[in-house]
Specification:
Layout: E1 12-13, E2 28-31, E3 34-39, H1 52-70, E4 78-85, H2 91-101, E5 108-113, E6 124-131
Parallel strand pairs: 4-5
Antiparallel strand pairs: 1-2, 2-3, 3-6, 4-6
Length: 134
């Protein structure tokens, strides 16, 4: 039996310093020991970064590392990464930059090539699941 003030079905918001989106979303939430987050290549003003796939991947991963730090964990806590790119040729660059942010043992991963992402000009998006401290 759960204590009266325990709400296991409720998520908790992970507060970050990322740009406050106007969309109805949180950059990261936690529940039952797992962090759920999606990251895109925007800067602190909410602007899509210029510079192509390398710059966008780096910004997306910088945003992810900030989110992980805000949650009290590092990249070693990441369990799974879902990578979305708008062109198959981008995957080699994404892999190269990704390798600068993660060490073995690497997270489980999948990569998808999609026709487009929600924001015009966005070339990459990551969906990430990580372990939260208990």
């Amino acid at each position: 039996m759960l204590p009266q003030d325990s709400h296991p079905a409720e998520k908790s918001v992970i507060k970050t310093d990322l740009f406050a989106s106007k969309a109805p979303l949180e950059w990261a939430v936690g529940h039952n020991g797992t962090l759920y987050t999606a990251q895109i290549p925007i800067d602190s003003q909410g602007q899509l970064v210029d510079g192509g796939i390398e710059a966008q991947t780096r910004q997306t991963l910088d945003n992810l590392m900030h989110t992980l730090e805000s949650a009290g964990v590092t990249s070693s806590a990441v369990l799974q990464v879902l990578i979305y790119v708008t062109d198959r040729s981008y995957l080699a660059t994404v892999n190269q930059v990704y390798g600068e942010y993660f060490n073995a043992p690497y997270p489980n991963r999948a990569a998808m090539v999609v026709a487009g992402l929600a924001r015009e000009g966005m070339l990459v998006e990551l969906v990430v699941y990580a372990v939260l401290p208990q």
